[in-house]
Automatic annotation (TrEMBL):
InterPro entries hit by this protein: Acyl-CoA_DH_CS, Acyl-CoA_Oxase/DH_mid-dom, Acyl-CoA_Oxase/DH_mid-dom_sf, AcylCo_DH-like_C, AcylCo_DH/oxidase_C, AcylCoA_DH/ox_N, AcylCoA_DH/ox_N_sf, AcylCoA_DH/oxidase_NM_dom_sf
Name this polypeptide is given: Acyl-CoA/acyl-ACP dehydrogenase
Limits of the Acyl-CoA dehydrogenase/oxidase C-terminal domain: 231-379
Top-level taxonomy: Bacteria, Pseudomonadati, Pseudomonadota, Alphaproteobacteria, Acetobacterales
Organism: Roseomonas populi
Ranges of residues in domain Acyl-CoA oxidase/dehydrogenase middle: 124-219
Cofactor(s) of this protein: FAD
Domain Acyl-CoA dehydrogenase/oxidase N-terminal: 8-119
Highest taxon of the lineage: Bacteria
């Protein structure tokens, strides 16, 4: 039976999260960081002190031994308050902990996991290339074996948080004769390694999540920098994708609820024709539709969290949650902008930030068209 009610431990964790956010990220601080393009890397150690990175890690590995339902609740709460901190939390949990735990060597787990759990290590996934976006199997970056290790040549683009990361998890083709998803391996590459060149990319939103174009010019990494088995990198990434898609779905659901809350507050306060805007039936019904979409997204995310927590197959449900949540956010921000009108279009409005930032997620981390193809395939089509 699926029980959606948070238990006492989960409620205590959420209370700690709320107090942390109120103290470290009040509304004015969120707006300051967005306007100044200031990433939340400085908050990682504090999140580590709260124990948030330890939630779903077994106790024998230094964690709290909880499950993904608790992670999901925290992700939604973070996303509802400030997507920037939810995003960096998800990066540590998904690209960091899940990857190291899932296919890292014993030495890599011993060296990296304690730092990840303490919020003292950040790993950025360097997957996307100019000719390999949604089609990640079209990767052209090469890693050539040399004495003592590998030399990497190629280019990655739109790599979020690359400059602030301690390591780039680079997907490169190690078998020159391979094609498609075969022959791809993963390497941990320090951004400061000789031959790594980074160029910042200008974009319309998500100002606190900087993105980079990265060139690899004969970058040397030792043998022990490879993560997982040689030639199995694509399969390794697929093994943890349900975690990252679940992370995005939970976070985006929280952000969508924040957008509904923003529109609802405006509808109650704004007076038109001598009465609150929310007294108009068309506005009330629009807000009701917005909330119903968020409720649907939340239930989908909770179901996915239960599947992951109980060790069940969840590839279809992970793709569905990602599609539903990201399209819900676009729906509610679109209608939220209509309700707020010029007040929402102001650069000082939170709604415009939700609106412009939310446009990324239907194609970020796997376009929704690909997610629908995955769902269809899982249905046997």
């Amino acid at each position: 039976m699926i029980d959606f009610a948070p238990d006492e431990t989960q409620l205590a964790i959420l209370d700690s999260v709320d107090r942390f956010l109120q103290d470290r990220l009040p509304p004015d601080e969120i707006r300051r960081r967005d306007a100044g393009h200031v990433p939340p890397y400085d908050l990682l150690p504090a999140l580590g002190e709260l124990g948030l990175f330890r939630l779903a890690v077994p106790e024998e590995e230094g964690g709290l031994g909880l499950d993904w339902r608790t992670v999901m609740l925290v992700q939604e709460r973070l996303g509802r308050h400030a997507y920037m901190v939810a995003s960096i939390f998800n990066r540590v949990v998904g690209f960091g902990i899940a990857s190291v735990k899932g296919y890292g060597s014993a030495a890599q787990r011993a060296a990296l996991m304690p730092k990840l759990l303490e919020g003292r290590l950040l790993i950025a996934l360097a997957l996307t290339e100019p000719e390999a976006g949604t089609d990640a199997s079209a990767i052209r970056t090469r890693a050539m074996r040399v004495e003592g290790g590998w030399r990497i040549r190629g280019r990655k683009t739109w790599i979020s948080d690359a400059k602030g990361a301690d390591y780039l998890l680079v997907a490169a083709r190690t078998d020159p004769e391979s094609s498609g998803s075969r022959g791809i391996s993963l390497f941990l590459v320090p951004p400061t390694a000789e031959g790594v060149a980074m160029t910042p990319l200008s974009k319309v939103g998500n100002n606190c999540m900087p993105s980079w174009d990265i060139g690899f010019d004969d970058v040397f990494v030792p043998d022990h920098a490879m993560m997982g088995q040689e030639g199995q990198g694509f399969r390794h990434m697929m093994s943890t994708l349900h975690n990252s898609r679940a992370s995005m779905a939970a976070t985006v659901t929280g952000c969508a609820q924040a957008a509904v809350d923003c529109a609802l507050a405006h509808a109650k306060e704004r007076v038109q024709f001598g009465r609150p805007l929310g007294a108009l039936q068309s506005v009330r019904h629009r807000l009701a539709d917005m909330q119903m979409r968020v409720d649907q997204s939340r239930l989908t995310v909770w179901h996915l969290g239960w599947l992951i927590a109980t060790g069940q197959k969840a590839q279809r449900e992970a793709s569905a949650a990602k599609v539903i949540a990201t399209e819900t956010l676009q729906y509610v921000t679109h209608h939220g902008m209509q309700i707020l009108a010029s007040a929402g279009y102001s650069s000082e409005s939170d709604m415009q930030r939700f609106w412009r930032d939310g446009r990324l997620y239907t194609f970020g981390e796997g376009a929704n068209e690909i997610q629908r193809e995955i769902i269809a395939r899982e249905m046997g089509l």
